[in-house]
## 1
Amino acid sequence: MHYISILWYTNFMNYGFFRVACASPKVTVADCETNANEIIKYCFTAHSDGAELIVFPELSITGYTCGDLFLQRTLLDNAKRQLKRIAKETTSLDILIAVGCPLEKNDKLYNCGVFIAGGIILASIPKTHIPNYGEFYEIRHFTSGKALKDETERSDSFAFGTNTLIQFHGVQIACEICEDMWVPCPPSTQHVQAGAQIICNLSASNEVVGKADYRRMLVKSQSGRCACAYLYSNASHGESTQDLIFSGHNIIAEDGSILKESTMYNTGYILSDIDIDKLETERRRANTWVTENTKINYQKIIYENIAADNENLVQLDKKTKNNTNLSYTLLRTISQSPFVPADKENRAIRCSEIIAMQAEGLAKRLKHIGCKNAVIGLSGGLDSTLALLVTAEAFKRLKLDLKGIIAVTMPCFGTTDRTYSNACSMAKSMNVTLREIRIEKAVRQHFADIGQDENDHSVTYENSQARERTQVLMDLANKNGAIVIGTGDLSELALGWATYNGDHMSMYGVNSSIPKTLVRYLVAWFAEEADTNNNASQAVNKKLSDVLWDILDTPVSPELLPPQNDGTIAQKTEDLVGPYELHDFFLYYVLRWGYTPRKIYILAKQAFGTNTPNSIYNSETIIKWMRTFYKRFFQQQFKRSCMPDGIKVGTVNLSPRGDWRMPSDASAALWLKEVDTL
């Protein structure tokens, strides 16, 4: 790879975010000066909005639909003059500009994407695939840049060739043009193998029925399979002429998701923030993702800004490391519940899919071992409720009698009437076998055996109950030729919120990759299904639905301490370890993306509206529970090192056999130190 350094600059991105824009300005076909005026105007507007890169459509200086005017010297000369004027008039802007322009080289005309920054024309990337079918006849005017792939020479003082990377603000950027994306092997696939993180597509894609959906799918797909950001900037309705309609359909995608999309048949531009950290993490974790194809000869243009001297750079570095505020508000949605789809329809589809996966995994285990019975400890809480519902689904798949599901309620010192009643009602309405085994007597005998004062409500008091329940379940399973179905969820595993060799242990954990925030929606999905199911009597359905809705309204609790005087739950989990929505937020960004505590803190502040009128959690609360998360996550790894089998349903999982391998004695010092500086 050849390196061409333009200037010297060191940039510190806003916590890995890089702001980009796709513009579809008003176009006057063949009027290069008017078009350049529009382009310059958009460059200043985007820069004022914090954009670091702006992409314009294909042949945006001349217009795409010039036809045989591309063979006129007057048009070509003026296009080049306006290209230089755009560079000159944007000299003061710290922004990378990609515009479309016809350029000549070796007596051939190329359809180019031209990159400009700081008044300098950095590179020209010619279009590789020239369409000549249907409404397209570009071969009449343009030559493919394919023959220039291995060229590293410069034309008119700037790089010219398809295999070109631009490094701007530390981000690797490459280009393909319109048709290049629609072919079986897009050039962008090769670009990302050479290191490109953002692909700019300067396009003039006309509209026909269904094409917008197909275009959207292509952009999403290419950004996902290439683990890159894809910026698709399309020609606006100013190009509409004679037989064709153009819509200005702009798309900004990142790693398989669309971040922003324009309204069609309008001029204007869209902005979004690309998470470069996310892309880098995705590429690191997938060992089949090739980071560099050494067989390809690339030229790399490193543009740097000389605005700051070395002393100032050091000061900027120190300032950045101690500043936890973005210089702007992110132009992308940061969900408070990253495990849960925000859209209700998509959420219902996701819930149905997850439940099917859970049931299928358990059904395979039961079939493999020839087991027709299952034992579940039913507490009347969310996790055991979901486990019972999923187990029933597995039994239905295997056409097994639901009476083979033994739901065991084991009241003890902390059990409340509400949870006890809900557990019994749920088991009866589902027509499974209900067993009630009170364990107070056995636990008191155990206290006497080990010398534990019943009035001492320490961890021994709590865990003795949890382990007694597990012993009952295991022995009952042996007695009935059954397996014990684990109920613990992903969030509890992350926090170690389980009694070792108590509720921590089972023979198959159906909820082991379901975070607590998602458990709630899965149970709600069952409640809604019960409301509308016509396969059983309406009385049974209504009863089950009522129980499920009440369980959803019950505070999360292990119920290991005696109830309050009014009989309500005294021990609320979230009062002790923190809100699960925060812990699940931390968990997602720690495990899925490997983000630093500082970046997660920034994202949490935006997601939960910190320091705004609608704030859910203030900064101190976020930091407090973040510290709890890291401390417990590291301390409790030993429980995850010997966790039971359980089906994986999402990209975040803690199984030591597949997804998370961590020493049980690893130190959390680095992470906690960073949390303490927030």
## 2
Amino acid sequence: MKMCVASIGTILGIIMGLYLKGIAFFLLAISFIFLLLILLFISKKVSIKKNIALCLIFLVCILIFYLYVGFLESKYNKIYQYDKEELKLQAIVITDAEKQEYKDVYTIKVLNIEALSNSLQEENKQIEEKNKLIVRDDETSTKLLLYIKENSNSVNQLNYGDKIEITGIYEKPEVARNEGGFDYSMYLKGKEISGIITAKSVKVIEKNKINLIQKFIHDLKKNLIEKIREVLPEKASSLCIGLILGDKSYISEEVQNSFRQSNLSHMLAISGAHVSYILLGITSLFQLLRIHKRWSNILVILFLVFFMMLVGFTPSVTRACIMCILTLASNIFFTKPNVYTSLAISSIVILLINPYYILDIGFQLSFGGTIGIILLMNRKLEKQNIERENKSRANKLIEENKEWKSKILSKIFSCIKPIAQVSISANLIILPIMAYHFNTISLTFIISNLLASPILAVSLIGSMIFIFILLIFKPLAVIISFILSPILEILTFIAKITGKLPFSQILIPTPNMWQIFLYYLLLILYKFRNQISKLKNIIFILIIFLILAPYFIKFPMSNLSIKFIDVGQGDSTLIETPSRKTILIDGGGSEVGSFDVGEKTLLPFLLDNNIMQIDYMLFSHLDTDHCGRATYIVRKNKSKKHYNF
């Protein structure tokens, strides 16, 4: 209970630190009183002293993480002062090159910074005189993206662990240019990156200036990827690397879109299912080797720590591994594991490492799905009910018709039902998250998960066996690849087919925060429906109506609304009349590059403003930068009429 309250306080403190600033303490007091009243109301078996202790824990966690976020924000602002300035710095390369259009991109860890412009030199001297510090005090935790353009006055290739000296122009990351748009600065903060430096010159000072453990893990991962790509075909190898090592950079955009459209994108992010299958393989191996159970648990914990380092401490992996480690630790010390406590501790640890993970979609989906399975599905009772239902159904079928078909149907039903229950429980919680970030909901997620889950299990287990044998005896791994490759291709095929089913992706406007709050309130009320009065049906109907009303009822506005949309090159303007008629003038675009402004900027902006259809579309002229990407809206049937003038 204490850890769950601490976790809620942690999340609330981070949200306050990120968004509420000045009014945070007012909301803090309101939240404190609200939680106190709730605890006093529902915790009848808990003493007043314990309720007060829980409230104090809640308050302390809010304050600590509110101040923590404020400290990190000030650290980033220190780096942002260098925006558009020429810098000279020393750093260590901590990633391999990522090939992008006309440039190579690296992530670097900064050791020291020197401003070359006169204005910043004077400012830094004043800071040094007053405080005896400049950005150098925070530089050991400062990361930057390094852009090295083609044909620049720099080295051709940098290696992981190189200590380098760079001269270049620093740029702070962009914030959202449109209301509700993509905030690149927050995205980079989730990766602990403070901005971008475009190199004018780069010089390698020293090689292999990196921690030996980090170097070993990097080389191992790189070697594994190379061997997998050498043995398996391209499509199968990219999927195998994504499933086991969590690296999706080799998976084509087309395949990733197929998994996204079929509501199977969670299968490409290593999470609880992946970790459970890995644990199954490791523990089975230890059992064959007849290792004592306690020592086996210790070795599994060490392996999970190593595995987190191998895949890069992504939130979903870290959550799953920490929960497994806590469960194994409880077995070692002969204590009873508590799934709620494990989930709360994992969230606090992850957010302590980086509070900005709270904005990470992977973090939200991983914890949301797990919470859904835990809260909406009582595993023990469900298992007992399933067994009873299966036995009774099987007995009836055998009595009515003693054919072999009845037994097969009973077994199929017993396998399908748990998968469907888990899928529904997880998706009920993550549905608002998907709607908020992707503006889509799916009514076919059960079909896609039922078809793909068994194949995913076989793919994961097969991939683990394949990689293990690949490290030991390559010729045998080549033979296994002929079996594994078709299985991986079947998984991709299922994602492609189910993504094209009707209602697999229903486009909806971005829900407001109050709608999301009401949705989760509805789930909570349903969970405790037996404790609610006889008016519960009326309450459910009222909440559902309030959630859906903005999508169907359009109230007239008092004023004409004109909004200018930042579409990069070109112009775009949205006009909304008092009678709620919508007019889009131009849509932006570019003659070069593959970025689709219509899909990535224009349509999300319309959905963020609760606009599903444009009544009139006007083009000032037919140049590409004014109408080239607005055609995406026409293709999506979001415009009734379009003219040029």
